[in-house]
Structures are given as structure tokens and as C-alpha cells.
Design brief:
Order of helices and strands: HHHHHHHHHHHHHHHH
Largest sheet: none
CATH class: Mainly Alpha
Strand content: under 5%
Shape: globular
Radius of gyration: 18 Å
Low-confidence stretches: 241-265
Number of strands: 0
Mean pLDDT: 82
Number of domains: 1
CATH architecture: Orthogonal Bundle
Helix content: 55-70%
CATH superfamily: Hypothetical protein af1432
CATH topology: Hypothetical protein af1432
Structural class: mainly alpha
């Protein structure tokens, strides 16, 4: 709790990105037993920038693959849950954009974010271990605090990149130097945006070395989805020699064989994740191939 409060004060000192007003209106509409599609469309269409971003995301390979031209088409094509997730993605990118943030880095960061959201959603749909919309949100927000920490701490990006180069657990470095980390900070932002509790808590400890830290089965399955997605996306990016914005969980190196197509060295921690997701080694490789397809599109 102390670390969470300390992190909240750090973020407040530079300004936690506010949840857009239109998102509050949409949350109210989506919370109804029978949401009014016309009201939803009208709210979105009032924001031209949001509409353009939403249609672009909706036309990504993971959703409609280029067949959408209007907000109404997007809503009917992808479904109400995915529609809300796409709105969140558009709103988050707008909120995270900083004029003084390195443009190349931010595009790299956002590309990773979109890949993670898509990978989490696919794994949730494939394993039926978590609601697909929750999984998409978790992937979308899991690293959302990084741009703010770059803004708050001089040298943060250099430290982050050094961790990548040395393949050293970034969370350990963050806590040693800054007394907080991007997981806790992401939890603070997710909470301030009123995301569902399972999503916020899955983000909070997603680099923690033992999945048992999650007491709720619902949150634990969502966290397992995120950890598997993160490790596969990391492996896929490495396979393309593209590197990756995010490093895998500190104990994820047991899945190095992803890169070599060798049998996976499953220790007890990965066994827990597989059990939570209801999958075996064959399923993991099948999921990996599908996520690799998403990465290379």
C-alpha cells in the first residue's frame, strides 16, 4: 500500500492522464442493461479525432482487416465489447502522447502496446480463461505508465534500455533507483480510469516472480494470460531481430526455447500458468504460432 501511495504521488506531481469526458459518458451508456447503439455512435462521432483513430484500430488485422468506413459499421462488425476496447485504445494513445516524448520511441511503445492487447485478447478467446474485453484492456494498459515515468525521471529511458540490453529484470532496476516501478504505476493509472478491478490488479504485479501473489482466481487467470502474451510477443519480436520495447517477466527466461523451437523447460511457475489457462505444451506452441502471425502482419 505504501508503494502504491508513493507512486500515486509521483504521478500526480506530473499529472495522471485524465479519463476523457466522452469515455465517462460511454461508460454510463455501456453499463446499461440494454445500451443504446445510437447514443453510443453519437457520442463517438462528436469527436472527429477519436472517430478516425477508432476506425483505424477497427480496421487492423486483429479486428475487421480493412472493411470498416463508419462508426456504425465498426460497432456492428466488432461487437459491443470489442468496440469499447477499441475506444479505450484510441483514448489511451491520445492521453499518452507527449510533444516532448521521443517520437520514434513512442511509436515503438505504441506498436508494442497494440500487439500486447491483440495477443492477450487472442489467448483469452482461445483458452476461455478470461473475458476477451478484459484481456484486451490488460494488454493495452500493462505498460501505460512508462511514458509518464520517462517524463518524471531524467534518465529513465536510458535505464530502461540498459535493462533490455543486459536482459536484466527492469522492475528490479526501477525499484532500486526510483523506489517504484511501471507495474505499480500502471495499476494507479488503470484505477484512475475506472477499469475493472481484475484488469487493474492483473497489471499491478505482472512482473512478479510468482503467480501465487494473485489470490482471486479471476485475476490470476487474467494475469497468466498477460504473462504468456508478453513472453510470446517478446520471443516473436526477437525472432524478427526487431528487439522489443518490453522485456519478458524476470522468470520468463525458461521459455527461451520459444526462439529455437525446442521443448519448453517448464518449471513449477510456468506449470501454474498453464494450469490456470487450461493448456499444455502443445497448446502453447499453437498459441505462439498464431500470435506470431499477428506480430508479422
Amino acid at each position: 500500500m505504501q508503494k502504491t501511495e508513493y507512486t500515486k504521488k509521483i504521478l500526480e506531481s506530473i499529472g495522471i492522464p485524465s479519463q476523457p469526458l466522452f469515455l465517462l459518458s460511454l461508460q454510463e451508456e455501456f453499463s446499461k442493461k440494454v445500451p443504446d447503439f445510437h447514443n453510443i455512435i453519437n457520442i463517438v462521432e462528436k469527436d472527429v479525432s477519436l472517430s478516425a483513430r477508432l476506425i483505424r484500430v477497427a480496421n487492423s488485422p486483429f479486428f475487421a482487416g480493412g472493411r470498416i468506413e463508419t462508426i456504425e459499421q465498426a460497432l456492428r462488425m466488432v461487437g459491443i465489447d470489442n468496440f469499447y476496447s477499441i475506444i479505450l485504445a484510441a483514448a489511451l494513445k491520445e492521453a499518452m502522447s507527449e510533444k516532448d516524448l521521443d517520437k520514434e520511441f513512442f511509436e515503438f511503445f505504441w506498436s508494442h502496446t497494440e500487439l500486447m492487447a491483440a495477443a492477450c485478447a487472442y489467448i483469452a478467446r482461445r483458452t476461455r480463461s478470461a473475458p476477451e474485453g478484459y484481456a484486451y484492456m490488460t494488454g493495452l494498459f500493462h505498460d501505460c505508465a512508462v511514458p509518464l515515468l520517462i517524463k518524471r525521471f531524467d534518465g529513465y529511458l536510458k535505464v530502461f534500455r540498459l535493462a533490455l540490453r543486459l536482459n536484466y529484470p527492469v522492475v528490479e532496476i526501477e525499484n532500486d533507483i526510483y523506489k517504484t516501478d511501471h507495474c505499480i504505476a500502471g495499476f494507479v493509472i488503470a484505477t484512475s480510469w475506472h477499469l475493472p478491478k481484475p484488469v487493474s490488479y492483473a497489471i499491478k504485479y505482472h512482473h512478479y516472480p510468482d503467480i501465487d501473489i494473485y489470490e482471486s482466481p479471476e485475476i490470476r487467470k487474467l494475469a497468466s494470460t498477460l504473462i504468456l502474451a508478453e513472453t510470446i510477443v517478446y520471443a516473436g519480436s526477437m525472432q524478427q531481430n526487431a528487439g522489443n520495447f518490453e522485456i519478458e517477466p524476470s522468470w520468463g527466461r525458461t521459455l527461451d526455447s520459444f526462439l529455437m523451437n525446442n521443448p519448453i523447460d517448464f518449471d513449477s511457475r510456468w506449470a501454474k500458468i498453464m494450469s490456470d489457462l487450461g493448456i499444455d505444451e502443445e497448446d502453447v506452441f499453437s498459441i505462439r504460432e498464431k500470435v506470431f502471425e499477428i506480430i508479422t502482419r
